[in-house]
Sequence to fold (1128 residues):
Amino acid sequence: MNPLAAAIVALWPYALAFVVGAAVPRRQGKGERFAIGLSAVLGVAFLRGLWPGAEAPSEPSIEWPHLLNVIVFLPILGAIAVLFLPRQAPRLLKRFSMAVLLVDFVISLWLLGAPMTEGWHFQYIAEWLPSFGIRYHVAIDGVSLWLVLLTTLSSPLALYVSFGSIQKRTKELCFSFLLLHGAMLGAFVALDLFLFYLFWELVLVPMILIIGIWGGVEKIKAAYKFFLYTMAGSMLMLAAILYLVWSFKQVEGYYTFDYLALRRLVLPDTAAWLCFAGFAIAFLIKVPMWPFHTWLPDAHVQAPTGGSVILAAVMLKLGTYGYLRFCMSLFEGPAWQAGATLAWIALLGGVVYGALCAWRQADIKRLVAYSSVAHLGFVMLGLFSATRSGIEGALLQMVNHGVSTGALFILVGVVYDRRHTRMASEYGGLAKVMPIYAALFVLFTMASIGVPGTNGFVGEYMVIMSTIVSQALGRWATSQAAVAAAGVILAAVYMLSVVQKVFFGPLDNPKNKSLTDVNSREAVALAPLVVMVFIIGFFPKLLLDRMHDSVTGVVGRYVDGRLAYQDHRGRVDTVLEPLLGGPTEAGYPQRPAAPTAPSEAPSVAAILPGAGLEGAP
Amino acid sequence: MNLLFALSPLLAVAGGALLLMLAEALGRPAVAEGINAEGLVTDAGAGRAPELAVGSSVVLFCGAIFSIGVWLYGPEKLSGLDAVAPYFIVDRFSLFFSFVVCLGGALATLLGGGYLPEHSIDRTEFFSLVLWASVGAIALSAAGDLLTLFVGLETMSLGVYCMIALRRGSLKASEAALKYFLLGSFAAAVQLFGAGLLYGATGHTDLAGIGKAIRTIGEAGSTVSAPMVLVAMVMSIVGLAFKVGAVPFHMWTPDAYEGAPTPTTTYMAVALKSAAFAILMRVLVLSFGDDRLLSWGTGWPPIVATLAILSMTLGNVVAGRQDSVKRMLAYSSIAHAGYALVGVAAILGSDQAEPSVSFYLLTYTVSTAGAFGALILCGSRGREAVSYEDLAGVGRRHPAAALAFSLFLLSLAGVPPAAGFFGKLYIFTAATEAGLYWLTVLGLLNSAIGAYYYLRVMVYMYMREPVPGAPVAVPMKSSMVNAALIIAAFAVALLGIFPTQALQLAATALP
Fold:
């Protein structure tokens, strides 16, 4: 058999997926069939790339150091390029931005090629502002890998959906989405606190534009609220970062903003608590956790569909990721002690209160927004439990929430585009006129509730199980697990009640009689998410395997750091303590060389008589 | 020769000012003498604003280039400076500030070259006034003696008083000028009184000599009276805080900024403020820099910190409540003075404090000049953009003007990676280093408040449409305003991407 034929035979699953994807949908055009087939191929490629044992790499592979740079800066450069494209050519703008995002997605699949052993992968370091110890330092591990992939998957879908409902100011739309995409990716991979802060703030600007320009009636109020909440939090975080950097200089004698260096610090008790508070408030606002959650329903309801998808799928994860990455490894002691209390807040304020709020909403989009508060409560509970399976469950739940809630926002957008109302009472019996739509909605509802076989089940199960055995949560762990389990039931109550109201019962509103089912654009955007629901639901090991080593490391450091903190705590003095562990990690910032005297001003020693004459007879 | 070279920034600006005055007085008027639209007799220089603007901006850019030249050559290598040494200090600190003053002045004259003809203010003395005020400002930032200080301060202020009152027909401008003049004279008197007390107490008029005498307090045989020094110190701070525009000595700022023609406002906000900060730091460090006065318990840091907190908080809170963008920028300049004062208070315990304030003023100069310039660009004759409503929909109708405005506002708000963010970062790093954590936290929370009103401008430009039938601001067309905006935008981007190099320039400029 010649190699060409062999290659064709080897590619049969892709070919089959393409044919099935392209042939099955009814009433589609050629281009749309092609796109559906292509997304089926991508789904299969994704599945095969992850299949345990089949092609999962076990040998350390060669990691191209610029890969993360390409992934982060391709969309940012694309955003700049969009500025120079003509405003009068919306088709060109749309195709260009979609191409950039899809290429970025394909490139990011390369990350799956590396075995996620403990430590940092695809690390890239460059000096940026040496006098302040600021470096460009990016790397990923098993924690950030899935969030990066979630981002590169969600952004093209969100932008593609937006093109369906937004026709005005396409240029600004493309610019905002590309910039937002690059900034979010940057925040997930940055390991220099300065770089992280920079990307964290950069995310704000395009998101405000998206809410404020293409949003609903109250868009400006929502944009202000979103901006001010986040800005207040991030300013406190900046103050804490500056304090950390200064403390590090006190101990080691040089400036650095590097995460690897700063996490070795053991701060005095009060300072540790204040800095923890600065970081934690910034992240908990973003998550958002009660009582900082009030910006979220407004922002979600007012944002256009694509903006809501990005907001739910990725941006909220910046908060949970930040808490895991920074709060839990820079301030282990306070994080451990506060964890038990914060877990109650996550449960009662998030899981229970969010669910009750969602239940009472008449607006479907607002309901989904409050359900985010509830789901993120689960994620935070998993993080607070500080066990390996709890954190893995939380990470999995982050991806799950991105998939199922992102899809639900797209689905709400579908009926909104047709009827321009989101009130559940306006609908009823939609299953009769929109069968495919109803099936998809029920599917994602099941995923959101956590029915076994869908993605939501695995994450919630892991979180609840590890809550019971958690050391960190102390004696209330069992009752917290009970409340969390009750939260799952509440999720079923509010989601199923809206499904019942909207899709079943009599079709008595005459305006609903002529509604058309999902069109090809919406189907293409939803197809990858349907695939993801089942991939994660049936094969969670694919994701968990790759986070395993990194999460073990995170938990190990967390427990060690907390013990060290307790050792230091008993002392009377509040002087800064020496550092934890040794600077053995790759990429640890080295002490800078002593500054050399400027050439035009020779140092005193050089012009003293006798200098350089040592050893002369 | 060395001396000429060392003084070249000052001499270039002064010589240019003389030439320009001659050119303005003797040149042929472009329009015949007569009665203009305001019913006033036209000037000799009427209609020649553009050429004079180009001339004066060239002079000021020359001043800036000379400052850099001397800076690079190294003022410590110039002999012969002793002739002027106690009165006029040529060091890297003063050269850095003469660069900032010249840059701010050059941007203001470029803006003036577009603004004055557009709004038919045929007052070409604006340009020579800017030049003479800049001479005062350069002398002020290089002053090493109470006499030079006062002469520089008054030269600068007198020029600015006149520049505010340029629009003769406007009651608002006259009120602004009068208010500033009366309060300014009062502050100058307080400053002068303080200087007199200092001389009485120490027997010196040069700042270094005063500092030396103050250090002897408590030693045997010292004749310096400590209470008198303390009173003099408070009076000096009050006098300079007035020029800086710090709360509670800010009462003149909003009215003067709003009533003045916008290029004058730009000049006041950038050049005047930078020079005042330079001399404030110089006086505090050289004269009041001994261990007792530079301490939290018995010295000036708590006074400066209080001024900083009041300025930041009041400036930001009140700026958020304004309806006029110009007035909002005035209050925001008060808030920015507060941030810079945080850095001044941090001199207490950080080597980084002085360079961070210098760098902050540089970033503030380019961002503020750019913001006022963009505001000028958004309006045209009879339809000057003043309120937020005027800016509604500018983002759609005039994307370039809106983009430039947004860039400068983001820089002022301190959103990374614009220049203003690094300015704030360095200031607050220095404050943290000095142990003033609460000042850092307050300052950062204040920037979050500040972000609100900067964002509000962007919201109006991009997300609102004008009310149907309401008068719409039509952007003017002026190559000079465009040039100023391009220079400022370039500087904002450059300082944001390569902040270290500029900070190092500032860091070697210790007084």
